[in-house]
Amino acid sequence: MDALNLPPFDYKVTKSGANYLIFDMLRRKNVILTPEEWVRQHLVHYLIYHLNYPKSLISIERGTSYNKLQKRTDVCVYDNQGEPYLLAECKAAYVPITQEVVKQVSTYNQTLQAPLVVITNGLAHYCWKVNFQTRKYEPLQEIPFFNDEV
Prior knowledge:
The protein is built from two helices and nine strands; from the N terminus they run βββαβββαβββ.
């Protein structure tokens, strides 16, 4: 797997048939290690161990619907009241962050209405604060710590 622009962590990878699996501590099971999963696992560990996001408030591949279509969010963090707080879209390191990717996560967030949106391919990371009244996305220099004023 590619070296990423996120802190390393102590991961556990095993092989099952033709697939490599990585242990996901949130789902408490091994999942197929794809390039996108590699980025997701790094992001989740960064959120928990560097930015103080509680494990219990993080959901991976949460189902949501938009225009009667079923979609899955890569990472959704909830606040202490159970409301969406941060929505993250993870792409493989070789996938560039394009306007189409930004549109994808913005579309998902129309339903969830998380005040923070993150897009990462493990090398480049983008974070925005969303104002739903003005429909403006304010770019942030970094992902805030959990419970920082957003």
